[in-house]
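Example A, followed by Example B.
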Amino acid sequence: MQRIKAVIAYDGSAFEGFQRQTRTPRTVQGALERALHSLGIESQVIGSGRTDAGVHATGQVVHFDLPEHWALQPLRKLQTHLNNRFDAIRIKHLTPVKNDFHARYDAKERIYRYIFRPEPSIFERRYVARLAIGDWELLARALECFVGRHDFGYFLKTGSQTAHNVRTITRAYALSRGPYGYIYFHADGFLRAQVRMMVHAAAAIANGELSLDQLREQLELQT
């Protein structure tokens, strides 16, 4: 067996998230595994993280194992075969790695980019959120509150099951480019819907609907 690291991109609007689910076949992991199985590769696909429904990826790492007969083939051939089976997923790179490599546990950082503008066009609605920012300086101060190690249980979608809600955010900042705004979070991982809820809280502060003290209180809650 040969372990392979793959860097993939996908249009999240075609899927109900990354992780395989019993209630729907429309997951990134499920689509990847079905494509591999169709080529005689009976391997589980392990991702560096789980994305929510509708969330896109431009460079997510996954790994899977190749049987011996495929390990002797050029990886470019496998990449072409896989990409021919997808409409909403693109295999960007395939690299052989040591068999103890793990896409999730060896990941150093996850980066989430949230793109928005006050009035997205109808053609952008799957990729650009509708959001207006009143005070960009307040937005920056709000985002800075998230940096550090916190219990983010207040920013977790109700009903989600996690071993714990503690995550470490190393950077959180916003940029404005023309009509578009970008919010970035660098972290060791994210909870379900955490980023969207943090963005909404930071925007509420920037628009005078929430105070910085209230946000700090939310981050101090133990769940």
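Example B, a separate protein, is given below in the same form.
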Amino acid sequence: MPGQLYIVATPIGNLQDISMRAIDTLRDVDLIACEDTRHSGKLLKHYEIKNKLISYHEHNEDKRSDELLKLLQDGKSIAVISDAGMPGISDPGFAITNKARLLDVEVIVVPGPVAYISAVAASGLPADSIFFGGFLPSKKGERRKRLKSVSEIPATLCFYETPHRIGKSLVDCLQILGNRKAVIVRELTKLHEEVISGDLARLTANYESEKLKGEIVLIIDRHLIAGENRAGKNRKSISELVAKFQEEGVDHKKALKLAAKEYGISKPEAYRILQEEKGS
């Protein structure tokens, strides 16, 4: 008789965010498949779980899935965990779950923390309809294409991003999606947890060139901010945008930079257009 495959959520930062059921499951299974044996070893040590760990990550997922499925068919019970959160959600786990289903192996989910769900809850943005896009592509062209494909979805948009790419992604989000309310949530449940609220224009101006540390979730509202339009759709003039940002307390130099970002043009080009508008 086949064994059981357990998909077990683990803490995304704070080790206390694990259920008693998850702890019991990790103790009782025959084997635990994890992304990084050293990382997961710390979790097991903390809860005095003495069980065998085997690596299961994006580079060996297909091959390892077949090995684990053979063990499952031999009657072994296996738990799959990721470094943080729920396996299969932007982490390894899909391949073995899919193959197990096809072979009628019982798959049991042990729920727990998921970063983007917690981030939405903390963001203050609508949570009645959510679109989760995982990690945005690292290449600019692919990233902008992805953003265009989701620009009309009537839902709060959620993406994972890395510290070294968040600035570039904010620029593309502003240019493709237009200025919307947005929230950056980083280091969830950890010592330096931070929730940064604003709009895409302001967040872009603040973090385009400044690196944020830690794991990042970017939450974007489904609607443009009232009175604003997406690029190319009867938007405000450069001078109107500069005036608006100055009314919000931003100095002229930074206001011009924000306007340039919203138009997707360079600051010198924005300045040239501003002078033309003043002369017209």
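On Example B: The chain has a mean pLDDT of 91.
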